Amino acid sequence: MRTVRSSFALCALIGALMAGAHAAPLVVLDPGHNPANGGATSIRGTKEVTYNDRFVSELAPALRHAGWRVEITRQPGDAIGLVERAELADRLQATLFLSIHHDSAQPRYLVAVEAEGLPGYRTVKPTEGYSLFVSRENPQYSKSYRLATLLGRELRQLGRLPALHHAEDIPGENRPLLDRSLGIYEYDRLAVLRHGKAPAVLLEVGVITDRRDEAYVDDPGNRARMIRKIVRAFQRYLEESRDDDGRLDVCSGT
Ligand SMILES: [Zn+2]
Question: How many Å lie between the centroid of ligand 1 and the Cα of residue 202?
Fold first, then answer.
């Protein structure tokens, strides 16, 4: 019993020293678009920026609870440019950068609808699922891709499939699929991914012009489940990074 208490005290001491030596990792969350230019219009007539802001407002506290420091590029109501988002992450020396978006489809697959007096758009065929984008022009491409892989694996565990419509050979799409089963696309020129120094991923949470997928992402329980999976992926990323650095987890098992 005495040995257990001693080792616990030792771990607590080492943990405190390590916490001092290594500040908590910082993730910069980036809710896509701006109030004046709000991105896609959903089947409910709601602008994408509203979905992005809501998702980030729920993801941020979950990450903080898991031990991450969290900064957000843009508060609801504020505007910021694309390059400035990446530059902000660099100034803050972000460990990771995650841009949050909600998806639509090309105009040829959309029809105008009206939802409680608001003009919206609906897909003419089922277009559901999440998708992940990484840029080879990001200086930490392999780490970006690793984070996207972990995110894809976790999100797949929800029984949710990736959206594959961005790979279709039509103008506006034609994105190279790096991993079809996990929904990871290459999008080299994407400003928020290529201008920063931190590993960066853009997540399209769901397709808000698809009736079923919009209902999925609008459900608070589904959002909580997705957020738990995203936090898990971030934690896995950190565990792997620590292994890469050769640092020992001296307190495992206590
Ligand atoms: Zn968007």
Answer: 9
CB 49 within 8 A of CB 32: yes
Which token pair is 168?
Answer: 């279709």
Distance (Å) from CA 71 to ligand 1 centroid: 19
CA-CA distance, 228 to 233, in Å (whole number)? Answer: 9
Closest CA to 238 of 39, 60, 74, 22: 22
CA 182 to ligand 1 center in whole angstroms: 20
237 C-alpha to ligand 1 centroid (Å): 25
pLDDT digits (tens, 9 = 90+) for 147-191: 999 999 999 999 999 999 999 999 999 999 999 999 999 999 899
User: In the chain, what is the greatest distance between 2 CA atoms, to the nearest angstrom?
Assistant: 71
| Ligand 1 mean position, distance from CA 65 (Å) | 27
pLDDT in tens, 116-134: 899 999 999 999 999 999 9
Residues near ion ligand 1 (Cβ under 5 Å): 32, 39, 101
H or E stretch including 27?
A: strand 26-31
CA distance 214 to 219: 9
